Amino acid sequence: MSLPKLLSLFILFSVSVNLAIAQEEKLDKSNFVCSYTAGVINEKSICSMLGFRTRPEAQKAVERIVSRSGLKQNFYVMECPNIDNCFAAARNGERLIVYDASFMRRVNSITNTDWGAMSILAHEIGHHLQGHTLKEGGSDPNRELEADEFSGFVMYQMGSSLKEAQSAIWKMTTDYDTGSHPPRRKRMIAIKRGYENAKGMYPRLNSDPEPEIEREVPKTEPLVRKPELVKVPAKPRNVITVKTGCIEGNCSQGYGVAVNRKTLEKYAGNWKNGRRVGYGIEYYADNRKKYEGDFSGSDFHGYGTYYFKDGSKYVGKFKQGLMHDDKATFYYQNGDRLYIRYVNGKKEGKGRVIYYGGVQGTIFFENDIER
């Protein structure tokens, strides 16, 4: 059974419990609570229980995460409805991972991958294994970043991609610094750091190279009309023919459509002396829009919109192929907007961000790095 399926079983089935009624009063006091998001935890909703058993599928999923650390499991896992969160807690000596099954299902739905909820579980387990729950208090930025880094470390070992490891942070949080939780960008960096550390230690563990076979595609430069055939990597039994070069219209003077031989990216727009000039649209190899706007000398130049593969986009001016505008707008995938100056393709100075929920803030950049 695959790990994502294990997690699906984990979040779809409730944890069955046996109450230890005689010890119930020991749970009245919480000395540590650390939630995944900055949402308020309603501790009255936390089930007052000590002794319980869990389904084998759920325990196996937890064990698979813990085993990546080389440490022993030092906590219990239990489900409590209506808390709309997942968090680590220590209550009178009992260490717990508490989760709301509906919340975990919603995470997977929003992130469109089972790895979203798995990364949250790994994050909360990280709080326990790194000793955060031994200390008084709750969430703070340093603890959250350490747990994020642990999550990225184990997610690589378990087989997820970096994008999948970061999916919950990207979709479920914002770039607003709450005081207890750092901005989303810093958390994304922490996950990547853990992921890359694991990759450095286990370079072959998560590798899945695509086999190479031969297929036929035209061997032409973008403007050559008579193609030759060249062998390139492909998946088995998937031999196709791709037409490149100028495939429609006039790619010297006027309007034409051309496909790049090396990248298989397509351009549809105006040409002058065999160069892209004026208005045009460039597409990724999978036919998703990459850029729409002005060209000069085949470069992005003038006003346009650049669409990143992750769903974010830049709207503003370009100069010789680089983003360059004193008043550019960057749209994040989740709907947040950043108004910032771009210099030679990099964010510089003070920017104003409007988060999806309407809250506004200020961010400072130096050489494209948030300070």
Give a description of the structure.
- This protein is of the alpha+beta class.
- The chain has 2 domains: 3-201, no CATH class; 216-370, Histone H3 K4-specific methyltransferase SET7/9 N-terminal domain (Single Sheet), CATH 2.20.110.10.
- It is built from 7 helices and 20 strands.
- It has helices at 3-12, 56-67, 101-111, 115-129, 141-158, 162-172, 184-201; strands at 32-35, 76-79, 86-91, 94-99, 137-138, 216-218, 229-231, 245-249, 253-259, 266-272, 275-283, 289-296, 299-307, 313-319, 322-323, 325-331, 337-343, 346-354, 360-366, 369-370.
- Strands 8, 9, 10, 11, 12, 13, 14, 15, 16, 17, 18, 19 and 20 form a 13-stranded antiparallel β-sheet that branches. A 5-stranded mixed β-sheet has the order 2-4-3-1-5.
- A hairpin with a 2-residue loop joins strand 14 and strand 15 (322-323).
- Helix 5 packs across helix 7 (184-201) and helix 6 packs antiparallel against helix 7 (184-201).
- It starts with a helix and ends with a strand.
- 36% of the residues are buried.
- The model is unreliable at 3-30, 40-45, 48-53 and 208-230 (pLDDT under 50).
- This is Peptidase M48 domain-containing protein.
